[in-house]
Amino acid sequence: MVLMLxxxxxxxxxxxxxxxxxxxxxxxxxxxxxxxxxxxxxxxxDCLGGGxxxxxxxxIGIWFGNSEPYNLVTQRFPMLNGPNPVAPPxxxxxxxxxxxxxxxxxxxxxVDLPIIDxxxxxxxxxCCRNSSISNIVDPDRIGATFSAEINPxxxxxxxxxxxxxxxxxTVICVGEPLTFDHSAFDVDGDSLVYxxxxxxxxxxxxxxxxNPGDPNGCFGVRP
Length: 223
Prior knowledge:
The strands form three sheets. The protein has a five-stranded antiparallel sheet, with no helix packed on it. It has a four-stranded antiparallel sheet with strand order 5-4-8-9. Strands 10-11 form a two-stranded antiparallel sheet. The protein is mainly β. 3% of the residues lie in helices and 34% in strands. The protein is globular, with a radius of gyration of 18 Å.
């Protein structure tokens, strides 16, 4: 899961603060040597940031390959379930102010995929991030990529993705120690490895807010 903690800023902030894609293997698909997967994507937005609403329809790309550039397999366009309010955490050091608002959108879709010797990459790209992020240059002009990978071994074993146990806090207290359990659970009993990585870029400002270009192109707001 990728989630950006909310800070306070002016009304020019944009909306995306985090998201994740998880999948469940549901067994053999309709055709021979295919597997049916159900995907669930969670997208979180700052609903007081002055940015866009959650997409009524998400544009999902499913690709395959063991190295870039990947090859497109198919696309899916799941509909929004939401928006759903996310309650602020109960923290002893503060009473959450009234101007904090986080919403989640849930998108669910099912697809049959052939078992192959390359990884599948399921990807959603959207602009733009919340402008209060301090360690990204021009975050309100930079989009995000949320993805999941199903490698060849996972395909053969009908494996499921791990899921995070807890939702990260949307507010924290300055100067106070923070302890958060960011562990995940794997229904298959697989061992899990955790590491930090740079967030992936994705999408741009073309096709919106007076910016010329195709909103669904590589640098569009909804590739």
